[in-house]
Amino acid sequence: MSKRLNRREFIKILGAGTGGALVGASTIQTFAGMKTASSADLITEGSIEKTPTYCELCFWKCAGWVHKKDGEPWKITGNPDDPNSHGRFCPRGTGGIGTYTDPQRLKTPLIRIEERGKQVFKEATWDEALDYIAAKMNKIKEKWGPECIALFTHGSGGTYFKTLLKGFGSNNIAAPSYAQCRGPREEAYLLTYGEGVGSPERTDMVNSKCIVLIGSHIGENMHNGQVQDFSEAVANGATVITVDPRYSIAASKSKYWLPIKPATDMALLLAWINVIIEEELYDKEYVKQYTYGFEELKKAVKKNTPEWAYPITTIKPHLIRETAREMAKNAPATLVHPGRHVTWYGDDTQRVRAGAILNALLGSWGRRGGFYAPAKAKVEKYPLPEFPKPKKDWKDAFPDQFPLANLALSSGICDATIPTPGKDCSFKGWIVYGTNLPLTLPEPKKTIEALKALELVVAIDIMPMEITGWADVVLPECTYLERYDDIRISPGRESTIALRAPAFEAKYDTKPAAWIAKELSKKLGLEKYFPWETFEDYLDYRLKSIGSSLEEMKKIGVKKLAHDEDLYFLNGEEYEFGTNTGKIELYSTALEEHGFDPVPKYTHHEEPPEGYYRLNYGRAPMHSFSRTTNNSYLTDLMAENVVWINPLIAKEWDIKTGDYVVLKNTDGTKSNKIKAYVTQRIRHDSLYMVHGFGHRQKQMSTSYLKGADDTNLMSRVKIDPIMGGTGMRANFITFSMEDV
Ligand SMILES: Nc1nc2c(c(=O)[nH]1)N[C@H]1C(S)=C(S)[C@@H](COP(=O)(O)OP(=O)(O)OC[C@H]3O[C@@H](n4cnc5c(=O)[nH]c(N)nc54)[C@H](O)[C@@H]3O)O[C@H]1N2
Ligand SMILES: Nc1nc2c(c(=O)[nH]1)N[C@H]1C(S)=C(S)[C@@H](COP(=O)(O)OP(=O)(O)OC[C@H]3O[C@@H](n4cnc5c(=O)[nH]c(N)nc54)[C@H](O)[C@@H]3O)O[C@H]1N2
Ligand code: SF4
Ligand SMILES: [Mo]
Q1: Least C-beta-crowded within 10 Å: which of 77, 253, 548, 623?
Q2: How far apart are CA 390 and CA 396, in angstroms?
Q3: Can you give the CATH number for the domain in which 164 is found?
Q4: What is the position in ligand 2's atom list of the atom closest to the CA of 261?
């Protein structure tokens, strides 16, 4: 791997570029300029104390150090030994102290005293709150079976509740990171290569000579190590091809920006495949040795010429050819990035598969600059008794649907909670750990309908978010800076583990999830699933299995484990893939078996009606979803979101930058007021906003009604028939001028 950029070079790459009013560009500069922990930092001197942690502000889980000065919170820095952060934290991670200091945090267990949806609670002791939950859970178990309780989880502490629920007899455990995020990607790569992409992604971007980004807005999508890899590749002269209807930060670093008509990426991907096959630009040896179904693919894409794709995508044929040749020229060090949040239009598994096929033709899977084989640390599990076998699961609610869904669908569990004639068991209880479902699941009316129908809703959170307003019992967790959590085991070029230890004492009457789950297990008679005395004992047991200890990890924070496998594994050697044929399936036998197109095909998506625009959304570098929008350290950087409007459209509606507007969708649902940002950087057929704003909880006064909530405008989804992902870009919005 090449040498890392020094700080000055890094700033140059990320700060250089287009200038102008780039939202986020200055933040990337700040990120680049952030102090890298030096060896001097590693010495604990005088009044300065350091505790290892891994960040909980997003799911990249960077490892770092929490610094205290004279016992007071001082700063958080990256751990230089950590491959996820290389010693630098992003703006959100650096602002993590704001999570701990937020005065509006949940402070004590709460039990509802009014109807759901209003935050009217009485304060309770932990004993009262857990007794209440255990009694309701047992009642549901008796009446409906333990399987009628589901767990929604997103975040480190969810793992203890998974153990609890499995011990209780239910396997209905869902995370929004599947059906609302990367589910289609994992299934598409599994169908093609017999393996998923995983997180952190196994992309060898740092060594890529050509990077193709289909939507992926790296730089705004601030996954730390990935942004650093991208910057480094750009510094090394990699050609970047960005396909995005919006001029993203990544587009501003690109040689080619293809401002595609939204919802037509499949046509472009098929045209690229067509050019690469017709011009014989593919890796012939690789295709012959490793792939299955080349002839079928060739036949299927014969008609998908650049001229065919042009009127669909609005990308000129010569540009389609030129970019295809550029990819081939740099192959196999060409990476067609698999994306992450890929639940867009309902044909997402197929679209991502088209990208996977392109990677196979370029020979980039298993090769330098493409995809590497991640090393995985093996750390012994704490021995637990066997879990009971559930008699049913969420899939029973969807006979013959989503045959290739390998994980539970959060949206599916939500649907199966809404009482439906003819269905006997729907879900009766939800335990919600670290996910703000009213802002996370599209079709929010359905989420509310489901929440209203439940017999028990438990929310384990750190803030009085929208979800807690719907809970019968709210359990306040302490923040990640006040607790231990399980060992972070990250796959990557090297296998590493990281420790999170408490830097501060838990404020108020808050507790770590591990403690909460163990105490609840006692009330349910399930304590055998939490056999450890203290969580330190649990960690020490696991760490000793790899020759380390809690004591050692407290000193070093991150440990690299031995790794002797090859990163690049397809240089002519024999290899058996985990697909039906043992080959990379250009033609998918599994899809054929289930009656789906074995080779991806273009499907036309509905267009916005007259006067409406496509609702486009994404990320800002200084916020994560709705979880950071009340963090005062980060609201200093960005307090509300804005709606991007093309000047042509703004003129039509007489809207200027800075004006407040109200948006409404085709079903008449309206947004909060949101500031207009008139810019050439967005096509005329879409409006764009950052997700996570528009909170409706008065208890969070910093974020209350600041900006608009995109979820509220998502009253439609296009469901992926292969795995049940919720395509969320199927919504059309316009301006509601009478509300301005
Ligand atoms: N409209 C719309 N919807 C989306 C997306 C979008 O872009 N637009 N993105 C989708 C994607 S890609 C994803 S991955 C999901 C993300 O979905 P979520 O993970 O649900 O996102 P957040 O809104 O950050 O909600 C996190 C919740 O966890 C709480 N929390 C934070 N830290 C802790 C902690 O330490 N302990 C506990 N117990 N709770 C904690 C927060 O207070 C908050 O209530 O959303 C999906 N949904
Ligand atoms: N700062 C920050 N970083 C994050 C997160 C965060 O909350 N904050 N969340 C993390 C998570 S969980 C995820 S999943 C990722 C998500 O990050 P990505 O995977 O990069 O998300 P996408 O939604 O695929 O990308 C959004 C981009 O797609 C473009 N786009 C919209 N419609 C189309 C279309 O039809 N075609 C094409 N080609 N492009 C289109 C938008 O203009 C926008 O630039 O970000 C991660 N990184
Ligand atoms: S990318 Fe930023 S927010 Fe995410 S874990 Fe790393 S430092 Fe934290
Ligand atoms: Mo995500």
Answers
A1: 548
A2: 12
A3: 3.40.50.740
A4: 35
State the ligand closest to the CA atom of 27: 2
* Tokens describing residue 256: 């080619």
Which pLDDT belongs to residue 421?
Answer: 79
> Does residue 588 sit in the same domain as residue 630?
no
Evaluate whether 480 touches 446 at the Cβ level (below 8 Å).
Answer: no
Cα 105 to Cα 630: distance, rounded to the nearest angstrom: 10
Q: Whose atoms come closest to the Cα of 620: which ligand?
A: 2
Both tokens of 616, joined, read: 């486009």
Both 423 and 320 in one domain: the answer is no
Q: How many helices (H) and strands (E) does the chain have?
A: 25, 27
Q: What is the CA radius of gyration of the chain?
A: 25
Pocket lining for ligand 3, CB < 6 angstroms: 55, 57-58, 60-62, 85, 89-90, 92-93, 222-224
Calculate mean pLDDT across residues 401-427: 90
Could you read off the pLDDT of 322-355 as tens digits, one per residue? 999 999 999 999 999 999 999 999 999 999 999 9
Selection from 430, 38, 24, 63 nearest residue 224 by Cα: 63
- How many domains are there within the chain? 3
By the 10 Å C-beta count (0-12 exposed, 13-18 middle, 19+ buried), 33 is classed as middle
Is the confidence at residue 5, as pLDDT, over 60? no
Q: Judge if the beta carbon of residue 248 lies within 6 A of ligand 2.
A: yes
Q: How far is the C-alpha of 291 from the C-alpha of 502, rounded, in Å?
A: 49
Q: Are 482 and 505 in contact (CB under 8 A)?
A: yes
Best CA proximity match to 53, nearest among 628, 502, 462? 502
Pocket of ligand 1 from Cβ distances under 6 Å = 56, 154-155, 157, 176-177, 180-181, 341, 433-436, 439-440, 460-463, 465, 467, 477, 479-480, 617, 624-627, 691-692, 710-711, 714
Question: Which residues are placed with Cβ below 5 angstroms of ligand 4, an ion?
Answer: 181, 341
CA of 628 to the centre of ligand 4 (A): 15
Query: Looking at the structure, do residues 721 and 577 belong to the same domain, yes or no?
Result: no
Q: Looking at the structure, do residues 171 and 203 belong to the same domain, yes or no? A: no
Q: What are the tens digits of pLDDT across the range 299-318?
A: 999 999 999 999 999 999 99
Q: Give yes or no for residue 39 having a pLDDT over 60.
A: no
Residues 173 and 205 in one domain: no
356 and 408 assigned to the same domain = no
User: Would you say residue 33 has pLDDT above 70?
Assistant: no
Residue 521 amino acid letter: S
Using CB atoms within 10 A of its CB, is residue 505 exposed (0-12), middle (13-18) or buried (19+)?
A: exposed
pLDDT at res. 424: 63
Q: Which residue's CA is the closest to the ligand 3 atom numbered 7?
A: 93
Give me the domain span that covers residue 258.
184-211+239-374+568-593
CB atoms within 10 A of CB 684: 14
Task: List the one residue out of 354, 270, 312 whose CA is nearest residue 607.
Answer: 312
Q: Is residue 375 within 8 Å of 495, Cβ to Cβ?
A: yes
Closest C-alpha residue for ligand 2 atom 6:
624
pLDDT in the model for residue 45: 57
CATH code for the domain of 731: 2.40.40.20
Listed in sequence order, the DSSP H helices in 505-593 are: 513-523, 535-544, 550-556, 589-593
Q: What is the DSSP letter of 84?
A: T
For range 223-252, the mean pLDDT: 97
In angstroms, the CA 265 to CA 270 distance is: 9
Whether 197 and 343 share a structural domain: yes
Stretch 524-553: mean pLDDT: 97
